[in-house]
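hey so u asked for the seq, here:
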Amino acid sequence: MRILFLSGREIEYQRNTFVLNLLKRFGHVDEFQSGFEKFVRGSILRRTLLLYAYLSLKKTFNYDLIFVGFYGHLLAISLHHTFRAPVIFDAFISTYDTLCFDRKTFSPKSIFGRLAYWLDKKSCEFSDIILLDTPQHIEYFVEEFNLNQKKFFWLPVGCDENIFFPRKYTRNTDIDLRVLCYSTYLPLHGMDIVIRAAHKLLVEKHIKFQLVGNGQEFSKIKNYIDKNKLTNVTLLPPVTLPELPTLISESDVILGGHFGNSNKAQRVIPGKVYQVLAMQKPLIAGDTSANRTLLSHGENSILVPPNNPELLAEAILQLRDNEFLRDRISENGRLLFEEKCSVDANTDKMREIISYIQGML
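ran it, structure tokens below
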């Protein structure tokens, strides 16, 4: 089988890497971004238009399957009129929900809000199969955009298993607990809940927080830290993906989120959850409907209700005081990853998806 893999975001993006590694088990995969990325710097729109123009000039029609990875909404619409091969579209996120309700960049009734809605709906309608990361996310797409549920399959986000795997760890005896949270500071992530939990633990002199990243709410979070003199919190800039495992391995507890109380938080499992599970580290995550489809409280994670800094602080103390619980959660988390989230575990699911689309032809 010859497969063409396209994406509006870089191939190295966590979701794209996971899917690409799966597809390579089913045939020869041509990656149209790899080797072409220097020409597609800039906005997703510019990247997509240039990529589409390049493919049109190449007249690449001899594929058995076209896979449109993240972010591929514009590609999914344009490819519908160009290629004869069936298209699997990894929608991954809703543009409409992200821009109008999560980030609140546009009003849903504005021109850009309506355009985002149209983009989500048409990219799915023009694709033969649509992938999303959870059953809850599929339910949202089907209901919000009035789409055919039979076209949808769900596939976990996964991670790059060549980077995220268990590593040896030496505890820092000067600190009882090092808590790590890395984020792009979107409202969805609930970083305000994290720092309010850190505020409550300020009296615990040997619990230290490292917050890694930057983004929309970073200034608000920094102002809160400065105003309340949270000496137990260290802010670090974003790190590259290959650098991230070192930070994870050197931490005692990792906050996976999402800790915000938005509707989207109930529908999606954070990508960092898969990374932490893969690295066999103690995980605290939001007690959401999506997380519950994968995680079990007290077995492979500690789940805390969204928008609840008090219970998040209690969960951190619980893991500090119970080494046996930390070890059990870590070991069970790794087993869970191997059984449900790894490339090996999802090979049969991808085979089912490919078989289904071949049966449609």
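Residues 205 and 299 are 28 Å apart (CA to CA). The chain has 15 helices and twelve strands.
lmk if thats what u needed
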